[in-house]
Amino acid sequence: MSLVRSIIAIGAIVFAAPVLAQETRSFTDDAGRIVEIPADPQRIASLQDLSITIPLIELGVHPVASHGRTTETGEGFIRSSKVLTGVDFDNSDIAFVGNLPVDIEAVAATEPDLIITTPWQTAPVEQLEAIAPTIVLDDTVRGDFGMYEALAEITGTTDTLAILEGRYDSQIEQIRRLIDTGSISVNVIQGVNGEVLSWHTYGGLGRVLRDAGFAFPERVDAIPEGEFARMSAEALPELDADFLFVTYRTDALETLEDAFGHLEQVLPNFCDFLHACRENQMIVMPREEASASSYYALGVMAYTVISHISGRRFEPLAE
């Protein structure tokens, strides 16, 4: 028997006792599986950092283990978590259990009473469920913030989620009070491998812009909700707006020059072809806050929108 199988087999025996001692309930996950899970899980292993770990932390639940990424030197980190929650592997008791796939033995060693994974995570569910009850949540179906609803229900933190939602509602109300959003067009673009990408709703930034009532280019409104489109340089004029937002990856040590460089690969001297860029109405920001599924990030984006657009004299894009 391999070492992995031995640990799983031992785990199935050792970890079954505390799970059985707990009160349990049935939960139907996004894979259509009915799983008996602890009614009050205390030791959750999260196998996706962005869509599970960060939401759990914001809900006040620290998992005992988490999927993560690695630096060039092999050091594990929870992507975007330092800037969004302040919590990472190096300042908490959360154990790093690998990336894609996670290390099954490392997961078992943390003795979880519940494992939460996604279809994106390639660690086999059948191996995970030998360690502890395992549920699959699909963020591509639920949406970025739909994951919060499921996680709050699983962890008994719906009151905390209601507070986070209430704060966000107030932030959107403030934008609408200070800015005539319906008369201003916006968009989010990104250069990738010589193509320009645009989203129907780009992460937290996109949610703020949509909820606040800003107008988007017709080409962007035509993109199905939850999806994005790759386009050639010829599409740039159709993606233009009064204000354009562009992001860059600070976790990969990129800077705003990299954001411009990626757009230059799409079209040399791209700025000459975009009204927002020519008029200094292109807002460049770190991607971690802009794209994250995080209520803290929503607040940062709401404040960014107010500080960059409220009361500002700008040159509207000609119809």
Compute the number of helices. 16
Low-confidence segments, ≥5 residues, pLDDT <50? Answer: 9-20
Largest sheet: 5 strands, parallel
- Shape from CA axes? globular
Number of domains: 2
Task: Evaluate the radius of gyration.
Answer: 22 Å
Distance between the termini: 70 Å
> Which architecture of the largest domain does the CATH hierarchy give at level 2?
3-Layer(aba) Sandwich
The structural class is alpha/beta
Strand content: 15-25%
- Please report the total strand number as a whole number: 14
CATH class of the largest domain: Alpha Beta
Structure characterization notes:
It contains 16 helices and 14 strands. With 319 residues, it is of the alpha/beta class. The chain folds into two domains: 3-156, 3-Layer(aba) Sandwich (Rossmann fold), CATH 3.40.50; 164-309, Rossmann fold (3-Layer(aba) Sandwich). The protein has a five-stranded parallel beta sheet. The protein has a five-stranded mixed beta sheet with strand order 12-11-10-13-14. Strands 1-2 form a two-stranded antiparallel ribbon. Strand 8, helix 6 (125-128) and strand 9 (134-136) form a beta-alpha-beta unit. Helix 8 packs antiparallel against helix 9, helix 9 packs parallel to helix 16 and helix 10 packs across helix 16. The radius of gyration is 22 Å and the shape is globular. 42% of the residues are buried. Mean pLDDT is 93; it is low at 9-20.
